[in-house]
């Protein structure tokens, strides 16, 4: 079994022009910075702007064994018109489903601008032969997925077989064709921020359009520090190479307040240019209703009970 | 940030997002028109008959008037402190003393928001810092020293600790309430009584603290507070009735005080200036080092004696680090200290602003290259843009003198030996920072640094359990921790 070379690899991989170093991450200071960013006080019109943007950035997700065409159809309706009584609320960015439900979702959102994302590559574990993963990615694109959310092989990564992880991403990227590729690092299984940074750089070097934190099946899923760590890696790649990569925290973001904190971190780390659904997404299922609730509160001055927001 | 390429055509533009103002409400603190002196447990008018205005540095408005204590006022305060010492404070049980300190700590926590707003109004520091740093730490110091009050014999086994008597304490304007806590908490825990002189420009939280003392039921005369300019401090130093003098402030004044006290039986501690080196090695976590550099020099507008005002960068990472640092400076939010999103507030006074401006001009004249991010500064008040200088030589004034403002001088080094040599090559020795992923190098460096505090992979981190103090012209004596008790005790 190939081990990591003494001179760290990943780093001779063809990211053109190459990053001069991988760099490291100090966990204490990273978490402190994230905590400081989370304390920003976002009020009034700036809060409304953030919440509307959060909706436009949302990948409304259902990834359960019990998913059915009926469930996905309901989710798609919610995606197109999140608040039935307020037409000014924009649709979300995408719906994210399992491969078997891509066709249903595609049918439901056709012509709307809402994208269909499908997980692939033996989601959530990634523990399958490469050929099957590539075939799965190709299949979901043929079924109509606009975006593919793949998982990396954490077993390979953690045993130092970075080249395997890299090659697999390259192969899946080829199989995706024009579909957007989001690479899920499953940060909750990587153990350190150093690994998160390394995996982010690896994924970007291999052609990821987005780096994504989590499957939602492992705890912890997305956290603010881990997402900040990925933002800093994306920033380094941008400044060294000019390559623009998006970020998607997924799992565990349930409150509007959290979403605003992620947007503050994005704004102050990558700047205005990343404040767009093209470059940032939230992978979430229950976040949307809290955002709608907060928006209605900002507009009417009153909170309404959960019964006034549809559960889909 | 440069224009991002490859944006899909027809996609909506990114959001232009401005944070709405988020001011902390200032009506939580009721500021009176006038504050007298706190002597013998009561607020009294000054015998001098003189008052002077206190200005808010962020708006230049007059906030209130405060007494200018003359010689007679200072003597009355010292007399009151002596009386309280003799009349019982030195004799009550140590556990009883601890009880008062615990009470004060609790009241500081309960009134934290009010005191934080007062601190930001009077001194210009961002509410984020007074709320998250000054107030929690001030309360923590009282809690910590309350715990020592009845354990002094265990702190100094085989010795018999006794209080000194009257402690005169002169504090600076950069952390008004926190420096008050650093001084008063150990003095009272050891059984001394206190005459405190707050800085001329920041007396408000000290006057509110007088109210905290009353609220805690502290016996009259145990804490006395005299306000005024430098002359008031002079009278306090010259007073025959003091047994101990603790001073935090400039090296210049520290030297005057030491000269004045030569030959007198007054125990002295001085915590003076600094010109700390923040040393970044090529294996450091760069983004976090940038945060540490920013925290090291732009925290509290650089009005920090242990500020990391000299950045020493290993040459091999000079460019990426400076690029990151400059980008980070452009995200600092300068403005209204009471806005919860403000990172850098107002310069404390006109005099300090003039000094910073003068030193920055000297840096440009001597040939250093200046960088300041673009940011809108308010029209009224005292402001200075976060500033960094590159191409700085060791011989420049900006690399040698304490600026006490948001101004960073960047120098480079090639080897660890050179880093040590340059870091120690200063008249000061208060603090230093080391950034590296290599634990052995941290230890190697710490052994060689002549600085009272060395932070590794962090900066400006304080805790009441940790001693703090300087080498060389940064003064002597330690505050904080068990070490911080000793300057307030005598041993039989």
Please tell me about this protein's structure.
- In chain A, α2 (44-56) crosses α10 (256-269), α3 runs parallel beside α4 and α8 crosses α9.
- Chain A has a single domain, classed as Aldolase class I (TIM Barrel, Alpha-Beta Barrel).
- Chain A has an eight-stranded parallel sheet.
- Chain A is α/β, with parallel strands linked by helices.
- Chain A is globular and about 55 Å long.
- Chain A has eleven helices and eight strands.
- Chain B is α/β, with parallel strands linked by helices.
- Chain B folds into two domains: 26-272 and 472-491, 3-Layer(aba) Sandwich (Aldehyde Dehydrogenase, Chain A, domain 1); 277-456, Aldehyde Dehydrogenase, Chain A, domain 2.
- Helix content of chain B is 38%, strand content 17%.
- Chain B has helices spanning 71-89, 94-110, 112-123, 127-148, 152-155, 176-189, 204-215, 230-238, 251-261, 286-298, 318-329, 350-366, 397-400, 416-424, 439-448, and strands spanning 34-35, 37-39, 42-44, 51-55, 62-67, 161-163, 166-170, 193-197, 223-225, 244-248, 267-271, 277-280, 310-314, 369-371, 387-390, 407-413, 431-435, 453-456, 475-476, 489-491.
- Chain B starts with 33 loop residues before the first strand and ends with a strand.
- The A-B interface holds A 20, 23-26, 28-30, 32-33, 39-47, 49-50, 53, 56, 232, 238-239, 242, 244, 263, 267-268, 270-276, 278-279 and B 1, 3-8, 11-22, 128, 132, 283-289, 291-292, 320, 323, 331, 340-341, 437, 457-458.
Topology at a glance:
The complex is a heterodimer of chains A (312) and B (492).
Chain A: H1 27-38, H2 44-56, E1 58-61, H3 69-80, E2 94-97, H4 102-109, E3 115-120, H5 130-142, E4 147-151, H6 154-158, H7 162-176, E5 180-184, H8 193-206, E6 210-212, H9 224-241, E7 246-248, H10 256-269, E8 282-284, H11 287-300
Parallel strand pairs in A: 1-2, 1-8, 2-3, 3-4, 4-5, 5-6, 6-7
Helix pairs in contact in A: 1-9, 2-10, 2-11, 3-4, 5-7, 7-8, 8-9, 9-10
Chain B: E1 34-35, E2 37-39, E3 42-44, E4 51-55, E5 62-67, H1 71-89, H2 94-110, H3 112-123, H4 127-148, H5 152-155, E6 161-163, E7 166-170, H6 176-189, E8 193-197, H7 204-215, E9 223-225, H8 230-238, E10 244-248, H9 251-261, E11 267-271, E12 277-280, H10 286-298, E13 310-314, H11 318-329, H12 350-366, E14 369-371, E15 387-390, H13 397-400, E16 407-413, H14 416-424, E17 431-435, H15 439-448, E18 453-456, E19 475-476, E20 489-491
Parallel strand pairs in B: 1-5, 7-8, 7-10, 8-9, 10-11, 12-13, 12-17, 13-16, 15-16, 17-18
Antiparallel strand pairs in B: 2-3, 4-5, 6-20, 11-19, 14-15
């Amino acid at each position: 079994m190939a081990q990591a070379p003494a001179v760290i690899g990943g780093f001779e991989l063809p990211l053109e022009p190459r990053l001069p170093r991988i760099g490291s991450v100090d966990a204490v200071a990273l978490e402190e910075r994230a905590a400081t960013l989370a304390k920003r006080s976002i009020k009034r019109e700036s809060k409304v702007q953030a919440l509307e943007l959060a909706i436009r950035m949302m990948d409304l997700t259902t990834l359960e064994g019990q998913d059915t065409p009926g469930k996905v159809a309901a989710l798609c309706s919610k995606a197109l018109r999140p608040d039935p009584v307020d037409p000014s609320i924009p649709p979300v960015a995408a719906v994210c489903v399992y491969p078997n439900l891509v066709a249903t979702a595609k049918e439901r959102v056709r012509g709307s601008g809402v994208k269909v994302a499908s997980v692939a590559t033996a989601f959530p574990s990634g523990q399958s032969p490469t050929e099957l993963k590539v075939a799965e990615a190709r299949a979901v694109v043929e079924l109509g997925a606009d975006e593919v959310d793949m998982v990396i092989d954490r077993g390979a990564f953690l045993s130092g077989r970075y080249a395997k992880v890299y090659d697999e991403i390259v192969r899946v990227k080829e199989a995706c064709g024009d579909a957007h590729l989001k690479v899920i690092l499953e940060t909750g299984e990587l153990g350190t921020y150093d690994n998160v940074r390394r995996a982010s750089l690896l994924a970007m070097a291999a052609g990821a359009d987005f780096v994504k934190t989590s499957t939602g099946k492992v705890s912890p899923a997305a956290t603010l520090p881990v997402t900040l760590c990925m933002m800093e890696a994306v920033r380094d790649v941008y400044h060294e190479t000019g390559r623009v990569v998006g970020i998607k925290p997924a799992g565990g973001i349930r409150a509007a307040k959290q979403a605003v904190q992620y947007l503050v971190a994005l704004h102050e780390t990558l700047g205005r240019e990343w404040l767009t659904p093209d470059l940032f997404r939230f992978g979430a299922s229950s976040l949307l209703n809290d955002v709608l609730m907060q928006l209605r509160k900002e507009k009417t001055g009153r909170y309404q009970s959960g019964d006034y927001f549809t559960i889909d | 940030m440069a224009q991002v390429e490859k944006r899909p055509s027809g996609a909506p533009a990114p959001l232009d997002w401005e944070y709405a103002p988020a001011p902390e409400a200032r009506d939580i603190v009721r500021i009176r028109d006038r504050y007298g002196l706190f002597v013998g447990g009561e607020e009294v008018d000054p015998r001098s008959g003189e008052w002077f205005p206190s200005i808010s540095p962020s708006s230049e408005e007059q906030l209130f008037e405060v007494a200018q204590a003359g010689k007679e006022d200072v003597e009355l305060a010292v007399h009151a402190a002596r009386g309280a010492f003799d009349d019982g404070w030195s004799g009550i049980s140590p556990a009883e003393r601890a009880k008062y300190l615990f009470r004060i700590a609790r009241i500081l926590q309960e009134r934290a928001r009010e005191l934080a707003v007062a601190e930001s109004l009077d001194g210009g520091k961002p509410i984020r810092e007074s709320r998250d740093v000054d107030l929690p730490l001030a309360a923590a110091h009282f809690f910590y020293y309350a715990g020592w009050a009845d354990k002094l014999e265990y702190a100094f086994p085989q010795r018999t600790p006794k209080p000194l008597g009257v402690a005169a304490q002169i504090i600076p304007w950069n952390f008004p309430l926190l420096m008050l806590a650093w001084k008063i908490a150990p003095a009272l825990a050891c059984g001394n009584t206190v005459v405190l002189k707050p800085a001329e420009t920041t007396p408000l939280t000290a006057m509110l603290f007088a109210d905290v003392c009353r609220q805690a039921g502290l016996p009259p005369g145990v804490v006395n507070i005299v306000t005024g300019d430098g002359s008031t401090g002079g009278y306090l130093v010259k007073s025959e009735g003091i047994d101990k003098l603790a001073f935090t402030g400039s090296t210049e004044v520290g030297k005057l005080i030491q000269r004045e006290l030569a030959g007198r039986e007054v125990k002295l501690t001085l915590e003076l200036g600094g010109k700390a080196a923040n040393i970044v090695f090529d294996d450091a976590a760069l983004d976090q080092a940038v945060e540490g550099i920013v925290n090291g020099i732009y925290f509290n507008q650089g009005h920090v004696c242990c500020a990391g005002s000299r950045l020493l960068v290993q040459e091999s990472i000079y460019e990426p680090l400076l690029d990151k640092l400059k980008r980070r400076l452009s995200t600092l939010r300068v403005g209204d200290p009471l806005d919860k999103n403000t990172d850098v507030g107002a310069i404390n006074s006109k005099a300090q602003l003039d000094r910073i401006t003068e030193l920055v001009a000297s840096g440009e004249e001597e040939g250093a290259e200046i960088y300041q991010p673009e940011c809108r500064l308010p029209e009224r008040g005292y402001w200075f843009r976060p500033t960094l200088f590159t191409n700085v030589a060791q011989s420049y004034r900006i690399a040698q003198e304490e600026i006490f403002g948001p101004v960073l001088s960047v120098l480079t080094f090639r080897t660890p030996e050179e880093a040590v040599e340059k870091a120690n090559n200063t008249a000061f020795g208060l603090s230093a920072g080391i950034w590296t992923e290599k634990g052995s190098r941290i230890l190697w460096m710490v052994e060689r640094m002549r600085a009272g505090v060395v932070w590794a992979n962090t900066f400006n981190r304080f805790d009441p359990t940790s001693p703090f103090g300087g080498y060389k012209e940064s003064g002597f004596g330690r505050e904080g921790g068990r070490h911080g008790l000793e300057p307030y005790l005598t041993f039989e």
